[in-house]
Amino acid sequence: MNRWPKKTPDVLEKLKDAIKRGQCEFMGSPYAHPMLPNFPKEDGMWSIQFSNKVYEDYLGIIPKSFWNPECGWRSYVPQQVSACGYKNMIGDFEAYSRSCDENGHPLRPEIYEKEYSKEPAFYNFGFKYDLPGTEKSIHFPFLKIKGCEGNNLKMFLRTDRIAQYGVRYFMGMEGYSLEEYMNIIKKYSQQNPDEPEAALVIFADDAEYIGTNGWFRLKYQNKPDNVFEETPDSRQKLIDLISGCNEIGSFTTFDYACNELPALQEVITFDDDSAWHGAKASTWAGTPMAQLLRPWQDLVREKLSDLADSLDKPSLVNAWYHLTNSYNSDGQWPPTLPESPHIIHPFNYRYCYDNLLKAEQLVQGVDYSRLETDPEKTIQTILGPQQTLVLEKCEIIAGGTDENLKEKALKAKSLILDAQNMDSLKARNSKTLHPDEYEKRANALVKARTLIGGIEIEKCE
Questions:
Q1: Beta-ladder partners of 319
Q2: In angstroms, rounded to a whole number, what is the distance separating the alpha carbons of residues 310 and 307?
Q3: What is the pLDDT of residues 419-444, one digit of tens each?
Q4: How many CA atoms are closer than 13 Å to the CA of 316, on its beta-carbon side?
Q5: SS3 of 154, please?
Q6: Residue 100: phi, psi to the nearest 5?
Q7: Using CA atoms, how far apart are residues 115 and 210, in angstroms rounded to an integer?
Q8: How far apart are CA 171 and CA 165, in angstroms?
Q9: CA 251, CA 186: separation in Å to the nearest integer?
Q10: pTM score
């Protein structure tokens, strides 16, 4: 948020005006979008406080409501949110309904039985339980959050049963219409006759899916070369959605829903390590790039803690700022698995690397001999599977009759073979991966992939 107000101050003024008039409720979040459960409690609080400082500087407020990245959960997350001044936070219905209490008993056994899975996955949209439209836990706030009782922190749940349809609607996927979207909203807007007026979250996913395609093409449609492209019809789709909702009800703020609606009295909790979409928070921490960065981050953090009493305050704060920025989740995401060998985008990884290097410089360096990381292996793990698929397709094309395509395949093969040469990386003799070394190889893969008309990275349904 530090950059765009300077580049487009008119947009900032429009946002401030919308907030002032009550047309927009601005929700807060950690500064560099880290997965809070994957790092120590103190670190997450620093990141949230950095955001709060920016909100005060540019908006003149600290938001009341908190967007928890990926709805990642560990017992201390609500404590972080409350301690940093927030009164309300978002939660995920699917994570809640597939979780157990402290005694191991499912919170919602009727849903848990049909939808819980031990198998790790990026996404689990298998809604095998027919959730009634009158479900109270997506209509009313929770006042009691396990581990944060007495802090007056409230939670309202979003659900993929609605939100994921919304994402696909905005992305223009075949079969995802406004009419059906409105039917889903109407279904889950049902209430029992004796209940007071309630609320429903109709869209709660990554904001970039309204205006651009964000990561959607990469994650859901096997189109890794088409990310963050503009989606010009988003504006009209949003207008149509708002118009349709206004015909059946009225909009309110998240803060109002959390504080003015009758609260549910049961204590809400989640399994540690849970996240939205049926995923695990540790999935974000287990990617090859995350495993490469984390040991280095831990060394910097250790040194920062050792020097905390001797560093002047500006240097201490600045070191925490850059360290926690290196926790950015997209710089280490998505995972690379045999069945879905995606790659991390170079500009995101560079953000993590540059911030971590700056943090290290502020603590006067760390002992690299303690690192057991292997940058060459990391590159091979992330890029290797797709490189193999490109080379296999090049061989198929070489046996064909299309001379133009055969020439492109030769160029693609040359790009991959050059990228597989690790001489420049070995010459650095470093336990860390310089972003230039990753970027040139990742870009070569993208170019090679494009030359041969793409490859099937995974089967997408």
A1: none
A2: 5
A3: 999 999 999 999 999 999 999 999 99
A4: 10
A5: strand
A6: -120, 160
A7: 29
A8: 10
A9: 14
A10: 0.94
Residue 407 confidence (pLDDT): 97
Taking Cα atoms as reference points, which of 13, 436, 53, 36 lies closest to residue 273?
Answer: 36
- Cβ burial of 276 (10 Å; 0-12, 13-18, 19+) is buried
**Amino acid at position 205, single letter:** D
Which phi and psi (to 5°) does residue 360 adopt?
-65, -40
Query: DSSP labels for 47-58?
Result: HHHHHHHHHHHH
- Interatomic CA distance for residues 80 and 86, integer angstroms: 9
If you write DSSP's letter for every residue of 227-272 in order, what string do you get? Answer: -S-B-TTHHHHHHHHHHHHHHH-----HHHHHHHSPPEEEEE---T
* Alpha-helix residue ranges (DSSP H) falling in 308-402: 313-325, 346-362, 375-398
Within 10 angstroms of residue 36's Cβ, the number of other Cβ atoms is 29
Q: Determine the pLDDT at residue 233.
A: 95
What is the Cα–Cα distance from 447 to 418, expressed in whole angstroms? 13
Q: Which residues of the chain have pLDDT under 50?
A: none
